[in-house]
Write a structure and sequence with these properties.
3 helices; Lipocalin; elongated; 10-stranded antiparallel beta barrel; 47% strand
């Protein structure tokens, strides 16, 4: 009888606790230059399937069934406190410096009519406190081919998201809720999700150096449509914050780099990437450019 009464009391307390937990779940459409939008397009741009063109033999047609395996590593620049202050329309610093690199394997397969398809995505495992679930696909072909230079065209897109404790990281839980170290009142780690979707197109120009035949400099320019969102999932002292933010807009980017044939099948490609990104850090302030610059590398191997 005592056990039954204890269970009843436990269930009653749990029910009251659940009833008192308020869920705050507004949906907000952000302008593309809002601080939160800037963070979304910054990290979406980090994952663009752009540049990194492995060397190919000029003057020879791509054969159907060719397979090139690759592994890409991108440098993720660390954001200063001021640049990471994007929450609540630019009033709260978020924990955005999770990982120093972005890495993903890729596969290129030759198709008929000189087409190639590229598929890539990071492993869906927790690394640096971030769990990615991303998949990007691209199709490319040469537009013009000459003995010493080539112009390629590529279209690409990405679906998926990354999950991490961006709004309530572990480091703020050591501070009292409402204090300067924990201003929003986090009581546990959040499980936020950033959706990083895009579609884009790119032109790539490569020129072989006759005096260094293994080295191929290249440049590219691209246009992107970004459609990204951020789902907050933060347990706070007085509510569960489930705010949903979304934005969409256009960006442009450029890359410049070189590819070098280490062996007949193995190659190294290194690119510098830049995209201008507009942001209005506070209402009434002018829009400024706070772009992304990083360096990317690809090791590729021709399997057949």
């Amino acid at each position: 009888m005592t056990v039954s009464k204890s269970l009843i009391i436990l269930f009653a307390v749990s029910a009251v606790s659940m009833a008192q937990t308020k869920v705050f779940a507004p949906v907000q459409h952000l302008s593309f230059d809002a601080p939160e939008s800037w963070a979304l397009k910054y990290f979406t741009s980090m994952t663009l399937l752009s540049g990194l063109e492995p060397p190919e033999t000029f003057g020879e047609e791509r054969h159907t069934g060719s397979i090139t395996a690759g592994f890409e590593i991108d440098w993720l620049p660390s954001l200063s406190g001021a640049r990471a202050t994007v929450g609540f329309s630019g009033h709260k610093q978020e924990d955005l410096n999770k990982a120093p690199i972005f890495a993903r394997p890729s596969i290129r397969v030759g198709l008929p009519w000189k087409l190639s398809v590229i598929a890539t995505g990071p492993a869906p495992i927790d690394v640096f406190g971030v769990t990615p679930s991303l998949f990007a696909l691209g199709i490319e072909r040469p537009v013009i081919e000459r003995p010493q230079w080539r112009l390629n065209w590529r279209v690409y897109g990405q679906l998926g998201s990354v999950s991490a404790a961006f709004t309530c990281p572990k480091k703020v839980l050591g501070f009292a809720p409402g204090s300067p170290g924990n201003p929003t009142g986090c009581v546990a780690e959040s499980n936020d999700t950033a959706t990083l979707r895009y579609a884009g197109t790119e032109l790539q120009f490569a020129h072989r150096l006759p005096w260094i035949p293994r080295l191929t400099p290249h440049v590219s320019a691209g246009y992107n449509l970004i459609n990204s969102a951020f789902q907050v999932n933060a347990p706070l002292t007085n509510r569960l914050d489930r705010t949903y933010l979304w934005t969409r807009g256009e960006t442009y980017h450029g890359t410049a780099g070189v590819s070098y044939l280490l062996t007949k099948r193995l190659a190294l490609t290194v690119d510098a990437f830049y995209t201008p990104l507009s942001i209005r850090r506070a209402a009434g302030t002018p829009r400024v450019n706070d772009g992304l610059f990083n360096v990317r590398a690809l090791v590729s191997y021709d399997l057949r």
